[in-house]
Amino acid sequence: MIENDIFEDLFVLELANNHLGSVERGLKIIQEFSQVVRFNNVRATIKLQFRDVAHFVHKDFVNRSDLRYVKKTLDTRLSDDQYATLVKAIRNAGCIPSATPFDERSVDLCVELGIPFIKIASSDLNDWMLIEKIAKTKKPAVVSTGGSSLKDMDDIVTFFANRNIPLAINHCVSIYPAEDSELEVNQIDFLRNRYPDNTIGYSTHEFTDWSNSMLIAYAKGARTFERHIDIDSDGVKVSPYCSLPHQADEWFRAFKKAKEMCGAPGTQKRQPPRKEIEYLDALVRGVYAKADLPVGHSLTDEDVYLAIPLQKGQLSCRELMRGEILLKPIQKDSPVFIDDIDSPYSQVPSLRQTIYNRGLDVSIKTS
Question: Which of 42, 166, 22 is nearest to 95 (CA)?
C-alpha cells in the first residue's frame, strides 16, 4: 500500500502567475494568505508555477501579443533566484512550498529548491516526457483530471502505482470560471470507487460560493483541495476564479464545519458519545416482576414485564435471557437487578459495571 497521508486534509493555494512577474507582489500574496492559514490552523501549501520561459515559448512566437497564453507567460517570467526567494518565504510563513513544472528543466528546479511534492496540470496529464521526468524524482505528485479521458487517468494512476510513488487525483473542471451547474462534484464518487488506493481531491474554479461545494466535496470523500489565490492590490483586476484572502477564510471555515458534521471516517463504525448513550438508555425498558418470586426461581417470560424507567443496576430488555436463577426473593412490581440473579451478565465485571452505571438513580428525587 502506498502511503498517501501527505495529501490528507491538505489545501493547495495556487499562486500561479498572479505575482505578475513581481517578487514583491508574490511576497505580499504569500504573507496575506499565510496569515489566513495560521488563523484557521489548517495545513496548506502555496503553489508556484515553474516554466523555463526561454525554451518554453518557441522563438518565432515570442512577439505574438495576440496569443494570450504566450503573452502572459512572457510577461510574468521570474528567474530561478526569484523563485527561490518565494519558496523561502513560503517556508518561513509556515506553509509548504509546492510547484507545477511545465517543462523538464523546471522539474530540475523543483529538486534544486527542495519542493516536497509536485503538481501535474490537467493539460499535462498525457505529456509522458514530462511525467517520466517527474517520476524520476520519486517525489509524491498530485494530478488534476480536467478534460482528461478515462484511459489517460488509468494510465497515469498505474504508472505511479508501479513505481510506488504516492499520487493524489483531483477532480477538476477546467472551465475558468466554472458555474455551479458545471462543477460535476459527483465525479469524486467515481474517482474514489475507481482508485481506492489514492487520495482523491477537488480542484475548483467556481466563483459564486466558497462553502457549499466544500461541504459537498468533503462529505463525498475529497481530502485535498485546490483553489487559485490572488489579492486585490496594485489596481490589478482579480480573475473571477481566484479567491481573495477573506474568501479563503470562508473556505477553510466550511472545511472545518464539514469535518465536524461528517464525524468519524466512513470506513469504521462511529463511537457514540456518552450523552447519546445516556439519552437512549433512558428509553430502554427495564425488567419488573409480575408477581412475588421466590429465591431459586428460574425466570420465564410469564414472570416478568418490561416498562420504563430503567433503573441503575436493573436488568433491561437487552439482557433478559430467560432461565436466570433468582438469588433473592423479588416482590411484585419490583425491578429485577443484576445482583438479584445468577446469569452470564452477572459474572463479567465490565458488563456488571455498565449495568450499574446506566439508567435512573431512584435515590435522586426530581421535581
Answer: 42
Q: Which residue has the cell 471555515?
A: 253
Which residue matches cell numbers 450499574?
A: 356
Of 86, 76, 136, the C-alpha closest to 111 is 136
Q: Cβ(332)–Cβ(289) under 8 Å?
A: yes
Q: By C-alpha distance, which of 359, 294, 355 is closest to 327?
A: 294
To the nearest whole percent, how much of the chain has pLDDT over 90?
Answer: 74
Distance (Å) of CA 61 to CA 163, 237, 266, 360: 38, 26, 52, 83
Chain center to CA of 150: 24
How is the chain split among helix, strand and coil, in percent rounded to 5?
Answer: 40, 20, 40
Cα separation of 312 and 323, whole Å?
Answer: 22
Provide the CB-side half-sphere exposure for 217 (13 A, CA).
Answer: 28
pLDDT tens-digit readout, 81-126: 999 999 999 999 999 999 999 999 999 999 999 999 999 999 999 9
Q: CA 265 to CA 256: how far, in whole Å?
A: 14
Cis peptide before 309 (omega within 30 of 0): yes
d(CA 90, CA 295): 77
118 vs 135: CA distance, rounded Å = 10
Residue type, 96: I
Cell of 335: 425491578
For 129-186, the pLDDT digits (tens) are: 999 999 999 999 999 999 999 999 999 999 999 999 999 999 999 999 999 999 999 9
φ/ψ of 178, rounded to 5, equals -110, 135
Place of cell 472551465: 175
